[in-house]
C-alpha cells in the first residue's frame, strides 16, 4: 500500500510539474501561444498561476510565478515522499532536494521533447501543429550545437549531442 501511494503521489506531482515547466520553457523560447499544446498548458496552469502572478510579476520573459510554482511542486514532492515513507521532515534538505528535483524534471522534459521530435521527424508528412511546437521548443537548444558541428552527410548530430549533455547534467546533479 505504501509503495502504491508513493508511486501515485509522485506521479501526480511529476505530471503537473512537467506541465508547469513546459509553460516556463514555452514562454522563454517564445513558442506559439495559439498552438493547441500551448493552449492546453495555459489552461491547465492558469488557475494556479493567475493568483501567484499578482504576487510575483514577470521578470522580462521569465515567468517568476511559474518558476516559483515549479519549485514549490518540487519541494511538495519531496515533502510528500518523506512523509509517506515515515521519515522526519527538515526544511533545508527539502528545499535543496526540491530544487534539484525541479531541475532534474526540466532536464528530463527536454530530453523527452528531443526524443519525440527526433522520432516524429522520421514520419513527418507536412505541417503538423505538434511537430511545429516541438521544433519551437527544441531549436534554441539545437541551433548553437549546429553552428559548431554542422550536419555531416545529411546526418544532424545536434540532437544526439544535446541528449548526451542533458543526461550528463542529470547524472551530475544526482537526482
TrEMBL record:
It comes from the Bacteria. The chain crosses the membrane at residues 6-25, 62-84, 90-115, 154-173. InterPro entries: CCB3/YggT (IPR003425). It holds the Pfam family CCB3_YggT. GO terms for cellular component: membrane. The keyword Membrane applies. PANTHER family: PROTEIN COFACTOR ASSEMBLY OF COMPLEX C SUBUNIT B CCB3, CHLOROPLASTIC-RELATED (PTHR33219:SF14), YLMG HOMOLOG PROTEIN 2, CHLOROPLASTIC (PTHR33219). Belongs to the YggT family. This is YggT family protein. It comes from Idiomarina seosinensis.
